[in-house]
Amino acid sequence: MKKTLSFFFVLVAATCFGQQSESPTTQQVEGKTKFVSEKRTSINVGVRMGGGSLAGADFEFLVEKRLGLQLGAGISSFGVGINYHLQPYINSQFVSVQYWHHGFGNNHFASYLGPMYCFRARKILQLGLGLGVRVSDGPKDAGAMKSPILLMYNIGIYFPL
User: Which residues of 118-149 are buried (b: 16+ CB within 10 A; e: fewer)?
Assistant: First the structure.
């Protein structure tokens, strides 16, 4: 547990200090001046990130102008996502198809797949909301919760790299 938390805090610190050299640009988008990052990757850190863990991080990179892939891990989960950005830059809002895997090995609880909408503020804040359908049960579930749908949400900060 201490190793996981140490890694998490080192990752956050490295990301924060790495942002000092970023030079933001502005662009006219749909008649408005907007902050646009020329970066093509980002790190997201927060609550219910990394596949729905209590604390986790996601790494996203754009493979096309608007299409991104997201990989993440948290204290007790991991996740992947395919993101479609509404604007052609990394710091824009996006819709996503997410896969969340809660628990590892014998502590696997359940896995979920579903759509999600993520709001990204101009610079640092990210909020996500979606619905996931249960696609597998794990040995830790033991019939405790058989709801086929999960409210998927997250809140955190993101840093274009």
Answer: bebeeeeebebebebebeeebeebeeeeeeee
Mean pLDDT of 5-15: 47
Distance CA(94)–CA(22), nearest Å, equals 22
pLDDT in tens, 96-138: 999 999 998 888 888 999 999 999 998 899 999 999 999 988 8
Pairing of strands 94-102, 77-85: antiparallel
Stated length of the chain: 161
For residue 62, how many C-alpha atoms fall within 13 Å in the half-sphere facing its CB? 22
Distance CA 115, CA 94 (A): 11
Mean pLDDT of all residues in 20-29: 52
Residue type, 89: Y
Can you tell me the distance from the alpha carbon of 110 to that of 108, in angstroms, rounded to the nearest whole number?
Answer: 6
Q: What is the mean pLDDT of the chain?
A: 83
Residue with tokens 């990752």: 11
Specify the DSSP class assigned to residue 143: T
Q: What is the pTM of this model?
A: 0.76
Cα 77 to Cα 18: distance, rounded to the nearest angstrom: 26
